Amino acid sequence: MNQDTQQPRTAEEAYAARLAECKEILGRISKQLDIHQSRQQASPKNWGFPGDLSCAIEQLAYVLATLGDRSAVDEHGLSY
Questions:
Q1: DSSP 9-78
Q2: Using CA atoms in the order 24, 79, 53, 64, what is the torsion angle rounded to 10 degrees?
Q3: In this predicted model, what pLDDT tens digit does every residue of 14-67 receive, in sequence order?
Q4: Phi and psi angles of residue 77, each rounded to the nearest 5 degrees, phi first
């Protein structure tokens, strides 16, 4: 949470602020995926780009599990 903003006083306020921040970060992820894809298309033989996405998939699977859906960690054989 930004230090300049007032601290939430209730769980409902904290949830709303954190939900908005999660959605904002997801938007930034989407933009970065588009940039990443453009970079990969400029260098299609570079195996580093698929590696980046493997790492991202693993981390996103853990996020999904944190939110109550273990399907991605199970699909990828990850420990959670």
A1: SSHHHHHHHHHHHHHHHHHHHHHHHHHHHHHHHHSTT-THHHHHHHHHHHHHHHHHHHTT--HHHHHTT-
A2: -30
A3: 999 999 999 999 999 999 999 999 999 999 999 999 999 999 999 999 999 999
A4: 65, 35
C-alpha 36/C-alpha 40 separation (Å) is 6
Q: What is the pTM of this model?
A: 0.84
Q: Are 17 and 1 in contact (CB under 8 A)?
A: yes
Q: Is the dihedral of CA 22, 28, 32, 33 positive or negative?
A: positive
Query: With contact defined as beta carbons under 8 Å apart, do 49 and 39 qualify?
Result: yes
